[in-house]
């Protein structure tokens, strides 16, 4: 924890270092402390991950050369190309005057160290670069604000994590930072910037209008079934990307799925996420909000993998289709009771080994017979019910994977091209993919959200 915070914040604790000009940096032999870890500028003008390389040198595809040995003034376009900045970025006053074509920024391959200095001088990693607009929500460790970037005028979400003097940053913040800086996908919320001060760690995210819970409320708890299909596919697409990288989200629920006015759904709040390391198989079973927690975890299992997220997908699928939560238990015992009442009380045939589980034995549940899911999901077609059934399996190893689910016949109406899109390309880039208007909903998007990225 100490080393991570040091890497993002040590330069900020040295205002003299950050206050010097780029030229001063380059003329000093003192090693520059890291402000950002492996960052560049993304398409919206905020920070993003650099391309993978084992070298400290990151070669820019753009080279600016002197023509006929004439002296030419550096332009904003030159800086934008060299640092991969978008055209609408606003550089600080006087920033261009310090450069010439044979300055260190242009006369050799661009190193990560020089890139970090340049980004810091432009304004990344600094609180004053962002303006707080509205308070969106407050959690145990963090307060979330709607904000605006002075560099691009784009809206952002500022997740301000309070740092206790003795305890430092909560482990959930460390996990979120370490995972999100490596997860770049159209269906995963983008981490733009990280700002570390003595009192707080602020994560700067892209701003989305609302979460799935709010979307449901705005639609009168009746989402258009075509939109249910689009949201579910995007959820699976983002999860599949995580699972391919051995990352488990472990806290899927409607509040952690953000939606913008285009209909793009993105996974958020990776505070409980975990990179599944090998060979360890032991994890905490105190994960996943109760209503979306699978029965094997409820009964104490700590040996799990990506299947832990798939049960939650099933619960969210049901909730989008019906407008109500599937298993709204208030305790572990009640949660399991709801599950068994619908899916049947497990036995050695349906769940081998269950009769040896001490917690299961202690609850002494009635012997319920499985009910038909179709009776509870009248708006789902046959293929939708079948997919839901494959998600709601007692044993993790029997649940369908995210990749398999994306290829399920339920999604055939979306066409084959949605399966071959680049990771960072939205499904709405396809001409045939559009969000349907919600007939019973309020005007969308709603600008005054109640919560966003709550910590």
Automatic annotation (TrEMBL):
Catalysed transformations (reactions): L-threonyl-[protein] + ATP = O-phospho-L-threonyl-[protein] + ADP + H(+); L-seryl-[protein] + ATP = O-phospho-L-seryl-[protein] + ADP + H(+)
Pfam entry (one): Pkinase
UniProt keyword annotation of Transferase present: yes
Gene Ontology biological-process annotations: exocytosis; neuron projection development
Keyword check for Cytoplasm: no
Residues given in the record as ATP binding sites: 159
InterPro entries membership: CDK, Kinase-like_dom_sf, Prot_kinase_dom, Protein_kinase_ATP_BS, Ser/Thr_kinase_AS
PROSITE patterns (alphabetical): PROTEIN_KINASE_ATP, PROTEIN_KINASE_DOM, PROTEIN_KINASE_ST
Annotated GO CC locations: nucleus; synaptic vesicle
Keywords recorded for this protein, A-Z: ATP-binding, Kinase, Nucleotide-binding, Phosphoprotein, Serine/threonine-protein kinase, Transferase
EC number: 2.7.11.22
Domain named Protein kinase: residues: 130-411
MF terms in GO: ATP binding; cyclin-dependent protein serine/threonine kinase activity
Principal EC category: transferase
UniProt family annotation: Belongs to the protein kinase superfamily. CMGC Ser/Thr protein kinase family. CDC2/CDKX subfamily.
Name by which UniProt lists this protein: cyclin-dependent kinase
Protein source organism: Salmo trutta
Gene behind this protein: CDK16
